[in-house]
């Protein structure tokens, strides 16, 4: 089972996912940060991706994994935004 959530963060869109692990208990968190197109006609592009946050640590619920992924995306935007240009 997979669950997704998306939020806007200024010039970026954060896409989080929680994926239920097979063979073990819990959900793994993943995140993709997309830089939105600018007003001058630039294209949207992927700025950051981590499909197995926290080294594949599993969270008990999909909600916990999604919250962690969204916070990781916000951290990427706030701390690394200058590197995404």
Structure description:
With 85 residues, the chain is α+β, with helices and mostly antiparallel strands. The protein has one domain. The protein contains 1 helix and 4 strands. Strands 1-2-3-4 form a 4-stranded antiparallel sheet, covered by helices on one side. It is elongated, with a radius of gyration of 14 Å. The model has no long low-confidence stretch (mean pLDDT 90).
Task: Lay out the secondary structure.
Elements: E1 2-9, E2 12-20, E3 27-35, E4 45-50, H1 62-80
Give the structural class.
Answer: alpha+beta
| Total number of strands | 4
3D shape: elongated
The number of helices is 1
Q: Would you list the SSEs in sequence order as H and E?
A: EEEEH
For the residues shown, what is the average pLDDT? 90
What proportion of the residues is helical, as a percent range? Answer: 10-25%
Strand neighbour order, sheet with most strands: 1-2-3-4
Let me know the largest β-sheet. Answer: 4 strands, antiparallel
Distance between the termini: 34 Å
Number of domains: 1
Strand content: 35-45%
Cα radius of gyration in angstroms: 14 Å
Flag low-confidence runs: none
Brief sketch in words of this structure:
The chain is of the alpha+beta class and 85 residues long. The protein has one helix spanning 62-80, and strands at 2-9, 12-20, 27-35, 45-50.
Structure keywords:
single chain; 85 residues; alpha+beta; 4-stranded antiparallel β-sheet
